[in-house]
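Sequence, please.
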């Protein structure tokens, strides 16, 4: 009995028991964890898998292999599918070279199916704005009153940067508000909801979907208006156009007056 009691009180007993428990926990985890991973892999959406493959080739060098961001590009976790559809659909991304901001290009480098796949993968990284349905941005069926209200909303919320006609304007630090001429309703909606580059985010609480539709309707209607001649001056507005009219008109009269005065002095 004394021998057994000595073995129980051996100083190495507790560390050995602890090591044995840790070994057993590690063994159980190694058995369970791969099985969970395998199930997750087999249940992966094929579109997300395709998007991941394209992302690794196209986007990971700047945004990281898991979209976590690098010194060359921001994190994409939580930006949502709408941000990807906007940036790649307007050919701002992939960005050709570093600049103050990415310009819009006419021809997307990727097909819409490839853009959808990358958008689905980025959406799987974290919840964010989804690509909108057509009913949220189509201006078809809007009344003249709703389009006029869209103009008021645009002048209140957007014209300070994008110009009263949506032709764009300069911003500090080499940035600029791009022209909205020729931009699709879907991309305008996505820009409002995701806030690309220098633009703030307009949530549904700030601008409900109906307001966005009316703004899009105003821009599309304004774009279709004919130009009856004269210098539009980029649609800057009546104050600036009046200033240029005064400068050119009155300035010309002053120059003529100076010339006549000099000619009269010479005649004497």
């Amino acid at each position: 009995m004394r021998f057994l009691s000595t073995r129980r009180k051996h100083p190495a007993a507790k560390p050995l028991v602890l090591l044995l428990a840790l070994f057993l926990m590690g063994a159980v985890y190694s058995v369970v964890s791969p099985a969970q991973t395998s199930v997750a892999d087999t249940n992966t959406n094929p579109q997300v898998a395709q998007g991941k493959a394209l992302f690794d080739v196209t986007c990971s060098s700047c945004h990281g292999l898991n979209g976590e961001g690098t010194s060359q590009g921001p994190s994409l976790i939580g930006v949502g599918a709408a941000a990807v559809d906007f940036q790649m659909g307007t050919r701002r991304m992939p960005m050709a070279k570093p600049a103050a901001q990415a310009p819009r290009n006419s021809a997307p480098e990727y097909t819409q199916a490839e853009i959808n796949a990358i958008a689905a993968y980025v959406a799987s990284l974290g919840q964010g704005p989804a690509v909108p349905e057509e009913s949220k941005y189509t201006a078809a069926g809007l009344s003249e009153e709703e389009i006029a209200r869209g103009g008021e909303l645009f002048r209140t919320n957007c014209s300070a940067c994008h110009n009263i006609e949506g032709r764009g304007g300069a911003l500090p630090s080499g940035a600029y508000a791009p022209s909205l001429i020729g931009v699709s309703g879907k991309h305008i909606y996505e820009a409002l909801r995701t806030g690309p580059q220098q633009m703030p985010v307009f949530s549904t609480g700030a601008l409900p979907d109906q307001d966005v539709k009316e703004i899009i309707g105003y821009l599309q209607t304004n774009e279709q208006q004919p130009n009856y001649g004269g210098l539009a001056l980029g649609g800057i507005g009546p104050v600036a156009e009046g200033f240029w009219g005064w400068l050119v008109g009155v300035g010309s009269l002053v120059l003529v007056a100076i010339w006549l005065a000099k000619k009269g002095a010479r005649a004497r």
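DSSP finds eleven helices and two strands in the chain.
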